[in-house]
Design brief:
Structural class: mainly beta
Radius of gyration: 56 Å
Largest sheet: 7 strands, antiparallel
CATH class of the largest domain: Mainly Beta
CATH topology of the largest domain: Glucose Permease (Domain IIA)
Number of domains: 4
Number of strands: 29
CATH superfamily of the largest domain: Glucose Permease (Domain IIA)
Number of helices: 1
CATH architecture of the largest domain: Distorted Sandwich
Shape: rod-shaped
Helix content: under 10%
Bound molecules: zinc ion
Strand content: 15-25%
Distance between the termini: 134 Å
Strand order of the largest sheet: 2-3-10-7-6-5-8
């Protein structure tokens, strides 16, 4: 008894060699190893007669699949014999619900119009080919379109649905996208164009193939991808494919095409931008500088005297302290007890406990020497000191009274400068050309005197 008859017209096949060298190999399509009792192979004879891959007659005219007939025929269907995927793949068609005890290709619920003649069936894309599993038992289909299946996974059970005369599994291999006419024999033999066998182990003639899953085929890369990095048309990224794995890198600064056979490269991006800096100056965290972003570059101003933030505009560098109107030469303070000068923007102050003596313009005013061995006592001048006596009216400059005479001025008990000639001077500078320290500057000196280094006497 023939296990199955397809009404679909067979198309003559030449014996052109079918290469399956890179294809994923097939494992036994049945879960059982002893439930199959008959075989009807792919018809390798072009016209008029039937012949199988082994040059035998175990086929029938125009058959485009391999039939594995169930021992016990339709009476064994309800026992439930599992069909398994011959390789890993993706389900591309699945159909169930048709009558599954057909005994002829035709009649109620049977025939070539039922599931395209395959009745209840599943089609799995298994790599470089697809496999049709036909004539399944009603309600046994276990997978749906889009499912990924593994090799050996149960997908349904053997039945007799569609165009068939009895219980069997029809296995049909086609190229992906190929029609019925393009189906090919998975068995290798003297009368088959297929080499090598599509089965991992095709087993003996009229026996079951090995239940051995094949290694997945080496992954292939999509067309238009290469093993070397290649810019896309917009030059915004580059792509390569290694062992079927596509990698893409964005090229923010553009992609540069290199000579053939060489990796294309991403252009070097511009220097880092200013981050969160704005175009307005802001103080650095330690207030030692201010910085802003200008044309993508950070501009920094050092602020030696600190940075002053602004709520509405640029932060500014604090003005460093200066000496005000102080000159580089010492000038006596208003109280005559110290002198000060400006050195590199810094006020230097000397205490003049014995009094300060104003000199000529452009020259340092002088601290009067403290009497040897004496203790300066403003309220009780040391009478023994050389200058303790009353102002010397007989001095050589007694008649002059100009500023230079102040070099010899004595200090009276109150600390005021007493000019030669008996003038108890108010310290107004008689020379007129040399500015005196304004009295307003006095508190400033009092402050800085505690902050700046005092000069050794
Ligand atoms: Zn068949």
């Amino acid at each position: 008894m023939k296990g199955a008859i397809h009404s679909l017209a067979g198309v003559a096949l030449s014996l052109a060699l079918v290469s399956t060298a890179s294809a994923q190999t097939l494992s036994r399509p049945t879960a059982c190893s002893t439930c199959i009792g008959n075989w009807y192979y792919f018809d390798e004879v072009a016209t008029g007669a039937a012949g199988d891959w082994n040059c035998g007659g175990s086929s029938y005219d125009g058959h485009h699949g391999s039939d594995f007939s169930l021992i016990g025929n339709n009476g064994a269907i309800d026992t439930g014999y599992d069909i398994v995927a011959t390789a890993a793949g993706t389900v591309v068609a699945a159909e169930d619900g048709h009558f599954d005890h057909c005994t002829a290709c035709g009649g109620a619920g049977c025939g070539s119009s039922v599931g395209s003649g395959y009745g209840n069936h599943v089609v799995i894309n298994e790599g470089s080919y697809k496999v049709i599993y036909g004539h399944m038992r009603t309600g046994s289909v276990r997978v749906a379109v889009g499912d990924t299946v593994s090799c050996g996974q149960v997908i349904g059970q053997i039945g007799s649905s569609g165009c068939t005369t009895g219980a069997h599994l029809h296995v049909e291999t086609r190229p992906v996208g190929g029609a019925y006419a393009s189906a090919f024999d998975p068995f290798q033999g003297g009368c088959s164009p297929t080499s090598p066998s599509l089965w991992t182990g095709q087993g003996p003639y009229r026996g079951l193939p090995d239940a051995t899953c094949g290694a997945p085929p080496p992954p292939t890369c999509p067309s238009g991808t290469y093993a070397i990095w290649t810019c896309n048309a917009a030059a915004t990224e580059r792509t390569r494919c290694l062992s079927g794995v596509v990698s893409t890198e964005a090229c923010s600064a553009g992609c540069i095409s290199m000579p053939s056979g060489t990796d294309d490269v991403c252009a070097t991006p511009p220097p880092p931008d200013c981050g969160s800096l704005s175009a307005t100056y802001t103080c650095t965290a330690d207030a030692s500088a201010r910085e802003r972003c200008s044309s993508g570059m950070i501009e920094t101003d050092a602020c030696a005297a600190g940075c002053v933030a602004s709520a509405s505009g640029d932060a500014s560098c604090a003005t460093p302290p200066d000496c005000g109107s102080l000159a580089a030469t010492y000038a006596c303070a208003g109280d005559g007890l110290s002198r000060a000068r400006c050195v590199s923007g810094t006020v230097e102050v000397d205490d003049c406990p014995a009094g300060c003596v104003v000199t000529a313009a452009g020259e340092d005013d002088l601290c009067r020497a403290v009497p040897d061995g004496g203790v300066q006592d403003a309220s009780a001048p040391d009478a023994s000191g050389p200058d303790a006596s009353a102002p010397d009216a007989s001095g050589p400059d007694a008649s002059g009274g100009d500023a230079s005479a102040a070099r010899d001025a004595d200090v009276d008990g109150g600390g005021s400068v007493v000019m030669k000639g008996g003038c108890s001077c108010d310290l107004a500078h008689s020379a007129g050309s040399k500015p005196r320290l304004p009295l307003l500057a006095l508190p400033f000196f009092v402050l800085v005197a505690f902050r700046f280094r005092r000069h050794p006497r």
